[in-house]
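TA notes, week 10

Several of you asked for a full example with nothing omitted. So below is the full record: C-alpha cells for the whole chain, then the designed sequence directly under it. When grading your own attempts, check the secondary structure regions first.
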C-alpha cells in the first residue's frame, strides 16, 4: 500500500499512532480540530464538513494559500535549495515577509527542513528553529502533490483563534471535536510550540470546562501527555492510553517510549 505524502512534518503529530486514536473519532459527521497542527486526521480521512483552527496564524495562512494558489506556493517552496545557508537565508526572509503566497512557500520549506518539524518562536515572535536537513535529507513534494492538497482543503473552514473563542463562535452541534493541544506539565521541561507560554495549566482547565460544556451535544476526544495535570482534571473520562516514541531532545538516535492519555466526553 502506497503511503500518502504529508503536506507538513509536525512535532507531536499523531501519524504514527493514528490507528490507536482513529477508533474514537467520527469522520461521517462534522469534524472539528481546534488545535489542528498538520491536520493529519483531516487529510487522512477527508471528512465532508470540517473546521480547522490553530492559534498559529502563519500555519492557517499557509493552508489558505495552498488551497487557493497551490502552484504559486509550490514555486516559492521549490525554488529554495536544500542547503544550510539557503535555509537560514529563507528563515530570515520568512520573518520579514507579511502574509502572502511567498511566505507560505517559505513556511512549508522551513517546516520540511528545520530541526524535528518544530515550529518554535523567540520572544519577538520570530521563527528560530535551526536547520535539520543534515540529519535526514528529504525529497521535496511535487507541484502535483500541492494540487492534491489544494483539492483536499477545498471543503475545510479555516480560522486562527484561541480554541475557546473558536468553539464559542462556532457553536458546534452533533460534531466530532478532536482536541490535541500543546502539552503542559510541571514535571519536566516541554519545548512549547509557538513560544514558551502558549498553553499552561489555566488553559488545560479551560479546555476541560469547554469540553464539559460541549459534550451534551457533541463527541469530544482529547489526547494529552500522561501527567498528573491532565489525569487529575480528566480522570473520569479517560478511556485508555497509547504508547508513543519520542526523540529525546529531538535526536533520532535517542528515542524513548512514553504514554499519552485519551479522554472521551459525550458522543
Amino acid at each position: 500500500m502506497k503511503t500518502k505524502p504529508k503536506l507538513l512534518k509536525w512535532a507531536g503529530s499523531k501519524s504514527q499512532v493514528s490507528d490507536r486514536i482513529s477508533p474514537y473519532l467520527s469522520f461521517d459527521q462534522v469534524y472539528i480540530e481546534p488545535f489542528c497542527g498538520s491536520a493529519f486526521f483531516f487529510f487522512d480521512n477527508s471528512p465532508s464538513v470540517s473546521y480547522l483552527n490553530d492559534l498559529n496564524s502563519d500555519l492557517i495562512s499557509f493552508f489558505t494559500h495552498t488551497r487557493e494558489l497551490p502552484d504559486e506556493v509550490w514555486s516559492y517552496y521549490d525554488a529554495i535549495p536544500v542547503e544550510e545557508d539557503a535555509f537560514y537565508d529563507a528563515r530570515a526572509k520568512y520573518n520579514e515577509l507579511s502574509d502572502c503566497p511567498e511566505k507560505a512557500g517559505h513556511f512549508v520549506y522551513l517546516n520540511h527542513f528545520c530541526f524535528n518539524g518544530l515550529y518554535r518562536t523567540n520572544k519577538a515572535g520570530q521563527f528560530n528553529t535551526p536547520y535539520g536537513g543534515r540529519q535526514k535529507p528529504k525529497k521535496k513534494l511535487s507541484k502535483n502533490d500541492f494540487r492534491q492538497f489544494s483539492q483536499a482543503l477545498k471543503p475545510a473552514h479555516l480560522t486562527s483563534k484561541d480554541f475557546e473563542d473558536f468553539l464559542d463562535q462556532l457553536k458546534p452541534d452533533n460534531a466530532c471535536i478532536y482536541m490535541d493541544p500543546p502539552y503542559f506539565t510541571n514535571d519536566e521541561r516541554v519545548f512549547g510550540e509557538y513560544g514558551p507560554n502558549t498553553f499552561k495549566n489555566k488553559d488545560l482547565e479551560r479546555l476541560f470546562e469547554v469540553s464539559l460544556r460541549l459534550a451534551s451535544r457533541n463527541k469530544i476526544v482529547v489526547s494529552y501527555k500522561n501527567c498528573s495535570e491532565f489525569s487529575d482534571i480528566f480522570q473520569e473520562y479517560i478511556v485508555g492510553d497509547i504508547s508513543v516514541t519520542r526523540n529525546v531532545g529531538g535526536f533520532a538516535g535517542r528515542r524513548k517510549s512514553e504514554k499519552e492519555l485519551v479522554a472521551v466526553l459525550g458522543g
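The domain at 58-154 is CATH 1.10.1020.10 (Adenine-specific Methyltransferase; domain 2). Use that as a sanity check on your answer.
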